[in-house]
């Protein structure tokens, strides 16, 4: 099985010529009007750690938080009565219009960085919270002993065993709307299959790498078996009509507790 997925990864790499090691934001339509729907804040995290003074003035500050701030943000969620929900719970609620707690929140992490497991997980457990991890399998290693910035399969198994949600982030983190359509389809399908086979779970949601998508990518994602997808559009209003490009809240390095609480309410 390991060799089979290795060949898929090598084939994708050869076709695309890029692996999403860095993060470059696609410019979302942040001012696009929300459709009538339900308020579900979906928080978006990437890195947990300290930045240098110089780094704090770069785009790195858009996808990093300190360990202290993440802990404080989890405290605020608990203190203000928020209850974590999974992507499948969101899908079911958008279909039926019911089934969510009074103040739902979905905590999401992108990429599968190891610090999410080593730093983020203990904080989540401390506060009794669960999260959704959007992972791209390409760089996932086999053992915790391997030196890698990404999680390994045993760590992902532990997340699943702890009640956390593992979902797809494509196979190798390309700009899906900027590569050939057939390659985009393979990226989405192979990621879903690998995660399901390796972890014994159902994968039904995808986070578009870089937030890059269009209507064709949305249709392809649905054809690949996904029932929801998350974007980088800012906002907290979700609906059945927008389930293939749900809105998320970018949590930034400089966010104060007041910023965080405001974002939970209005999404920006």
What are the main properties of this structure?
268 residues; alpha/beta; TIM Barrel; two-stranded antiparallel ribbon; 8 helices; 12 strands
What this model shows, in words?
By secondary structure, the protein is α/β, with parallel strands linked by helices. The chain has a single domain, classed as TIM Barrel (Alpha-Beta Barrel). It is built from eight helices and twelve strands. It has helices at residues 2-16, 67-79, 87-96, 114-126, 153-161, 181-199, 215-223, 257-266; strands at 38-39, 42-45, 47-48, 64-65, 83-84, 104-111, 132-135, 165-168, 205-207, 228-234, 237-238, 246-250. The strands form three sheets. Strands 2, 5, 6, 7, 8, 9, 10 and 12 form an eight-stranded parallel sheet that branches. It has a two-stranded antiparallel ribbon with strand order 1-11. α1 (2-16) runs antiparallel to α6 and α2 packs parallel to α4. It is globular. The relative contact order is 0.19.
Shape: globular
Task: Write the CATH architecture name.
Answer: Alpha-Beta Barrel
Number of domains: 1
CATH class: Alpha Beta
Strand content: 15-25%
- Class by SSE composition: alpha/beta
Question: How are the elements arranged and paired?
Answer:
Elements: H1 2-16, E1 38-39, E2 42-45, E3 47-48, E4 64-65, H2 67-79, E5 83-84, H3 87-96, E6 104-111, H4 114-126, E7 132-135, H5 153-161, E8 165-168, H6 181-199, E9 205-207, H7 215-223, E10 228-234, E11 237-238, E12 246-250, H8 257-266
Parallel strand pairs: 2-6, 2-12, 3-4, 5-6, 6-7, 7-8, 9-10, 10-12
Antiparallel strand pairs: 1-11
Helix pairs in contact: 1-6, 2-4
């Amino acid at each position: 099985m390991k060799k089979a997925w290795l060949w898929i990864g090598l084939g994708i790499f050869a076709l695309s010529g890029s692996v999403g090691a860095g993060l470059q934001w696609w410019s979302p339509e942040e001012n696009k009007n929300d459709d009538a729907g339900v308020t579900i804040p979906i928080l978006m995290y990437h890195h947990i750690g300290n930045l240098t003074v110089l780094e704090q003035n770069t785009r790195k500050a858009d996808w990093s938080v300190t360990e202290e701030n993440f802990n404080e943000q989890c405290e605020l969620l608990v203190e203000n009565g928020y209850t974590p929900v999974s992507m499948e719970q969101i899908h079911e609620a958008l279909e039926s219009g019911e089934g969510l707690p009074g103040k739902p929140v979905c905590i999401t992490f992108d990429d599968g960085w190891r610090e999410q497991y080593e730093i983020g997980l203990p904080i989540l457990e401390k506060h009794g919270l669960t999260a959704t991890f959007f992972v791209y399998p390409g760089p996932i290693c086999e053992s915790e002993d391997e030196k890698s910035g990404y999680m390994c399969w045993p760590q992902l198994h532990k997340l699943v065993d702890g009640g956390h949600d593992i979902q797809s982030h494509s196979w190798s983190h390309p700009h899906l709307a900027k590569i050939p359509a057939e390659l985009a389809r393979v990226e989405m399908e192979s990621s879903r299959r690998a995660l399901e086979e390796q972890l014994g779970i159902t994968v039904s949601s995808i986070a578009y790498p870089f937030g890059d998508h269009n209507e064709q990518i949305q249709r392809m994602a649905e054809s690949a078996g996904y029932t929801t997808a998350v974007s980088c559009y800012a906002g907290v209003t979700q609906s059945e009509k927008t389930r293939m490009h749900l809105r998320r809240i970018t949590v930034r390095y400089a966010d104060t507790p007041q910023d965080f609480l405001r974002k939970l309410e209005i999404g920006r």
